[in-house]
Amino acid sequence: MYDGKPFLQLFLLIKKGLIATIAMIITMVLMLDDIENYPISKMDGNMLMISIYGSITVALLNVFQAICLFVYLNNTFRSIYVISSYISNTLLVIICTSRVNDYSFMYLGIFSGLLGIFLLTYQIWCGRRYHLVNHP
Fold it and tell me: Cβ(88)–Cβ(12) under 8 Å?
């Protein structure tokens, strides 16, 4: 997707790998929390299960996005890439803010999700500004 920009590809690959790793760590912590605290009662079970499946979805979407970095994409798949990036970053922020009181490292997930949303929004804004200025 980012042909001719090897440093940007490398940076985004490292970022996607870190976010996928963070999401899997969050999944494991949430699964252990489910096993330890709610084995019989399942008092907070629904929210916890949604968070677990959401963090697995974040990890899988980031693996998909890492593959898309090195493959040529047409306009349809570029739109899918951008939408999946927004979804994965937003899910990461939502999951981490729901459990920030329990685990202090959830701030890392919030930071990485917000960084992803900011970088993607900036890239889209610069791209549209480029097309508005250079292509009447």
Answer: no
Dihedral angle sign, alpha carbons of residues 37, 42, 48, 52: positive
Range of the domain at 81: 6-134
Residue 39 lies in a domain: yes
Looking at the structure of the chain, the number of domains it has is 1
What 3-state class would DSSP assign to 69?
Answer: coil
- State whether residue 115 is helix, strand or coil: helix
Task: Encode pLDDT of 19-75 as tens digits.
Answer: 888 888 888 888 887 777 666 666 666 777 888 888 899 999 999 988 888 888 888
Spatial distance between the Cα atoms of 76 and 87, rounded to a whole number of angstroms? 17
Q: How many CB atoms lie within 10 A of CB 118?
A: 11
